[in-house]
Amino acid sequence: MFYTFFVAAVCMYGFATFYAVSDNYIFFLPFNIIFALAIGYGLTSGKYNFFQKFSWICPLIPAFYYTCFSIVSLTSKGKNFGDFKSYKGGLSYYMLPWMYDNKGILEFVIDKKTAPEPINWMTSSAEVFIQKLKEKGYTEEEIKKL
């Protein structure tokens, strides 16, 4: 199993580094889930029989994420953070990124939205990229789907 995970890690992290993938924590979720499963597999084998008795808890992990999201969204700090980051999807984007239709930087720039924090470096490079795509004949709707 070591070689399988090593190759998966090199491919995943190498791709993200080479292509400068934004929002790495979302991009790394598939490998991190596989890594967590491997840890669970190791803990339930042989000398760690204690963990086998509690393996039924694993399907409750998504409920834990949702419960944390619900609790944080009730607090004033959570609401402030969600409002501040609303241009990116708010609190749901950071706590439950796989459960929401999150907007990308291309759609953000095309819709001419503004952010409360400085992201000029990202929007300027996105504008250049959008311009190049338009020169190739892409419409704004097609670019948003990218």
Describe the structure.
The protein has helices at residues 2-18, 24-27, 29-43, 49-52, 61-74, 76-84, 90-95, 105-110, 120-135, 140-145. The two termini are 35 Å apart. The model has no long low-confidence stretch (mean pLDDT 78). The longest helix is centred in the N-terminal third of the chain and has 17 residues, at 2-18. The chain is mainly α.
Shape: flat
What's the alpha carbon Rg, rounded to whole Å?
20 Å
Percent of residues in helices = 55-70%
Low-confidence stretches: none
Order of helices and strands: HHHHHHHHHH
Report the average pLDDT across residues.
78
How many strand units? 0
Q: Termini, distance in Å?
A: 35 Å
* Major sheet description: none
The number of distinct helices, counting runs of at least 4 residues, comes to 10
Structural class: mainly alpha
- Oligomer category: single chain
Provide the β-strand percentage band.
Answer: under 5%
